[in-house]
Design a protein that fits this description.
The chain has 78 residues and is mostly helical. It has 1 helix and no strands.
Length: 78
C-alpha cells in the first residue's frame, strides 16, 4: 500500500475568464486586467526603490573605501 500526499489525487482546475466566478457585476475583464497591471506596477515600484537603496548603500561604502585608500596613499607618500 503506497502512501499518497493529500493533494496528489486533487485535479488541477483552471477557470476561464468567462466563468461565472468572474462575472461579478462590478468587475469586468478589463477591470481584472487593470487590477493585475496595478499590482505589477506596485511590485516594480517596490523593486526599483529597493534597487535604489542598495545602490545608494554600495555607493556610500565605495566612497568610504576610496577615502580610506586616499588617506593611506597620502600617509605612504610622507
Amino acid at each position: 500500500m503506497h502512501s499518497h500526499g493529500i493533494f496528489t489525487s486533487c485535479p488541477l482546475i483552471f477557470l476561464p475568464l468567462q466563468d461565472p466566478v468572474f462575472e461579478h457585476p462590478s468587475f469586468s475583464q478589463t477591470d481584472i486586467v487593470q487590477l493585475e497591471d496595478e499590482g505589477i506596477s506596485d511590485e516594480i515600484k517596490k523593486l526599483a526603490k529597493r534597487h535604489h537603496e542598495q545602490v545608494s548603500k554600495k555607493q556610500g561604502l565605495l566612497d568610504k573605501l576610496l577615502k580610506s585608500a586616499s588617506e593611506v596613499k597620502e600617509l605612504q607618500e610622507k
